[in-house]
Structures
1.
Amino acid sequence: MRILAVIIAAFAALWSAAVHAQQPAPAAESVPPPPPPQIAQSYLYLEPFQARVEVLFDVTTVLGWLKIPADASGMITPQMQSNVRAQMAALASDWCHLRADEAEAQGQLTGVAFVKGEPGRTLPMEEGATVSARELMVGVMYEFAIPGSPAQLALRWTAFKEPVAALPLTIFFANSTETMELSPTLSVARWENKNRLPRPKPLAELPKIPKAHVYQIPLPMILWILFGLVVFIYMEVKDKRFPGGFLPFLASWLIGIGVTYSMTLNISDPFAAQAAPVKTADEGSRIVEPLLRNVYRAFDYRTESDIYDRLARSVDGELLRTLYLQTVQALTLDGAEGARVHVTDLSVTVDKVETTAEGFIAEGEWTALGTVGHWGHQHQRVNRYKAKLTVQPIESEWKITALEVLEERRL
């Protein structure tokens, strides 16, 4: 009996296992993907004459502020990106304010952008691409005009909207950084300069050109005096009387001298030393290198008038406007509103020089090395150009009057 009971129990266990094997396994419960991490990070980039503020938020937070329903697939389409940029530009226009030396700095929101990656580790993003919300952030950018070397700056952030309870701030200046944090109870971050923000370098000196002395000759007055003397001598020799008498003649003659006294004719000294013709590559390099260096130093300034004033020290004629636009485009970081490369090093090589009647044409190449901060990390930009430059003495100063770029490469 005991053996029979064991056999029956074993058979029952096998039967139960077979029945359970034929039953479908219960479906696993679908677990929604975890929401993307909340992001709130800000950056303040300081340069002489300009402060740039960039603030990053995760896409989910921004969609909540704008009351835009998220796609069930978790993807952000180009149409959604366009809507977010437009609405966020209106919402965030007055979130950021800056005071420089206790005076309100003039500035504005310069753009809203979708940024791929993480703060400080952003990735290139293809224009018009549909991207997962987990990979994207929304950045707002502000630009302010500040003095060349302010003693103190105060950044004020006015928008602490749920769920953002604090806003870490990283300040970039020269080759250093400083960290602070903004919050509803401490919405102002103060930064002391203490001579840590260098001013733009002065313009490089150029070889001197002999300046011809200019003689100011009052030729109209001399001719009037001679005319009066000739008339007086003629009347005396011919023993004739002046119409109306001598006194009216004398009075009109003296008045004419007074009127023509300030009328001068400027004549340059024809025997003055002229600029020596530039014949060798070394001679051309001593002129071209500081000229090109000053072109890039002009863009250390930010307002158009300041740039033009300094650019005109090295460039003349129609080239002034053209070179301004070309250089702004070359120094502006792709897709980064307001982020302009600061050229820190320049290498110039002149290969050959062709002497002309009005100056010389230099052919050679130069390499411009620059850096720019954007979205929490530093970009390095290296551009190399091969070109022909026409250089002429303009008002006793060497200036570039024509530029033909033969080759441009980004290294």
2.
Amino acid sequence: MWRDSALVAGKDLRIELRSRVVLHQVAPVAVLVLLLFAFALGPDRATTVRAAAGVFWVAVLFATVLAVQRSFAVEASEGTRDGLRLAGLDPAGVFLGKAAAIAAELVVLEVLLAVGVVWLYGAHVRSVGPLVVAGAAGTVGLAAAGTLYGALAAGLRVRETLLPFLLLPVVAPVVVAGTRAWQAALGTGAGGAWDPWVVLLIVFAAVYLSIGVLLFGQLQESS
């Protein structure tokens, strides 16, 4: 399983390095979300600082949808998906490999967006711990859930429009918990511990990783 996951992750990342779709298309959209919210919130610095954590996770969510769509779109033509099924790869390894590739792409985007939040919104990091832990757990959860629902929608003609409807309601806990944890890290929250929110992110990631490992093979066959 681990060998197959490394093969699939390497394949997806090599495709991305050659096409640079995430760099040239997904990243600009994510940055544009930051800019639009900055204009909508106005020049009041206090307002933008309070909204920084939430805007960051909304931008990450949009980037996740685009990254997942890209991950499955490259396998939609020329029988690539059928070839992947017939290659004898462990379905759990395929799931983990695709999720790992999407997570790696999201990490790059999140670093870019974090710099944008600091620069555009005037946010200042006061505690690195919740920032890193929440970011890592949220990234894994988004990648796992995105891969699972991406496979569910992959075989449908309306997959481009169906995926957001399937994915966005499901990952709402990640956005809420990630925002609360980042507010604690940026010192913009209403107080309270950040640990429960990070625990929620870890549980979400563990649940969807487990579901993906168990059910991805069936989704792969049905798509």
